[in-house]
């Protein structure tokens, strides 16, 4: 028999899940206590008692998105050998995330960065923290490939991460806004060109 605390956790997960669905289709600003309550057939007070304010719900959504993103993109790549194999796996899964329009409506790191670029507060701070942690993860993975001798010793890791992020962002734009069926193919070609320029000299 499900305990009261287990029911509460299940309800909280449902609330955050419903709010996440709203965020990835309509933006973080679309989240409201009332709309989440309506979707789940709960009272507004019932939702509020579990998540607190709308801002706290937005933060909970970002934390849930971060968890799902890392589990989908990065964790599976950890099974690959450190260095270029792992870097390739991370980038491949990252690009597939961007192009899978049906499963992943958008990337909250990218969409949220535009949505909150000129705002202050906890939501922006959590967005910024997520983006910087992901950039740091990419930089660490690039540096591991350099240390393994798979990439040039003089490679500017920050510049490579910048260009990797640029490829991902334009893929999001073209796959979702332009609805270009060749967007993933073009992004993969851009990645291979960047990678070729980063390899050690023969």
What are the main properties of this structure?
202 residues, mainly alpha, elongated, 9 helices
How would you sum up this structure, described in words?
Pfam families: TetR_C_13. The chain has 202 residues and is mainly alpha-helical. The chain has 9 helices and no strands. It has helices at residues 4-26, 33-40, 44-51, 54-74, 84-99, 108-115, 122-147, 157-177, 183-198. The longest helix has 26 residues, at 122-147. The protein is elongated and about 65 Å long. The mean pLDDT is 91.
Question: Any chance you could write out the topology, listing elements then pairs?
Answer:
Elements: H1 4-26, H2 33-40, H3 44-51, H4 54-74, H5 84-99, H6 108-115, H7 122-147, H8 157-177, H9 183-198
């Amino acid at each position: 028999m499900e305990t009261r605390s287990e029911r509460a956790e299940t309800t909280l997960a449902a609330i955050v899940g419903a709010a996440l669905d709203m965020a990835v289709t309509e933006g973080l600003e679309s989240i409201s206590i009332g709309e989440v309550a309506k979707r789940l057939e709960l009272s507004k007070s019932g939702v509020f008692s579990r998540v607190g304010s709308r801002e706290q719900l937005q933060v909970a959504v970002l934390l849930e998105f971060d968890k799902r993103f890392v589990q989908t993109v990065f964790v599976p790549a950890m099974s690959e050998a450190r260095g270029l194999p792992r870097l390739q796996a991370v980038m491949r899964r990252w690009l597939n995330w961007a192009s899978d329009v049906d499963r992943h409506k958008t990337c909250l790191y990218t969409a949220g960065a535009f949505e909150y670029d000129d705002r202050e507060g906890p939501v922006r701070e959590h967005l910024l923290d997520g983006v910087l942690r992901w950039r740091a993860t990419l930089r660490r993975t690039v540096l591991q490939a350099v240390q393994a001798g798979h990439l040039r010793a003089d490679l500017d890791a920050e510049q490579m991460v910048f260009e990797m992020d640029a490829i991902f962002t334009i893929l999001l734009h073209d796959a979702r806004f332009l609805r270009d069926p060749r967007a993933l193919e073009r992004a993969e070609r851009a990645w291979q060109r960047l990678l070729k320029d980063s390899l050690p000299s023969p």
